[in-house]
Write a structure and sequence with these properties.
The chain is α/β, with parallel strands linked by helices. The protein contains three helices and nine strands; from the N terminus they run E-H-E-H-E-E-E-H-E-E-E-E. It has one domain: Rossmann fold (3-Layer(aba) Sandwich), CATH 3.40.50.2020. The longest helix has 19 residues. It starts with 8 loop residues before the first strand and ends with a strand. The protein binds guanosine-5'-monophosphate.
Amino acid sequence: MEIKLEDLKVLFSEEQIQTRIKELAGEMNEFYKGEEVYAICVLKGAVMFAVDLVKHLDMPLKMEFIRLSSYAGGTKTTGKVNAVDISLPDLNGKNVLVIEDIVDTGLTAKFLIDFIQCNFKTKSTKFCSLLDKKITRKVDVEPDYYGFDIDDKFVVGYGLDYEGYYRNLKYIGYAE
Ligand code: 5GP
């Protein structure tokens, strides 16, 4: 399937995304109550979401970036998570907030949660995803926070790509 910009339909507008992000940040500010947080952005897809989300978080916060991939390009997952760069600081005793773009099969989320739990004894580990495709889940994992629940559609924009393109869109769209 080739995805052309002119065929994209808006699923979530810039305004809807930004409004939801402020709501999520409000819940997080309430939960952490000023405690320090390590926000871990999963590159590349979560970059826009993570950057916008942390602007609304008011606790002391450090940002880390890791890079994983499960899509081999195109619109199908490989079903295997590749850790491209997963170097992290010492997270023992820390509040860890993982920020993802989308939970689809759940393999990436599970891989990351297991990785953090195997390597560190954190104070708390929370998983936040902008999108949740519950319908395509293959492993038992649920984000602690998510922006929007979506159907089994391949979406692009606002960090999410199709063969590397469309990450720069301000909205999230799909092609039928
Ligand atoms: P999972 O491991 O949950 O199957 O997939 C997670 C990763 O697959 C996401 O971080 C994202 O990079 C990619 N992915 C899953 N669904 C979509 C989608 O609809 N659009 C795009 N662009 N990427 C997706």
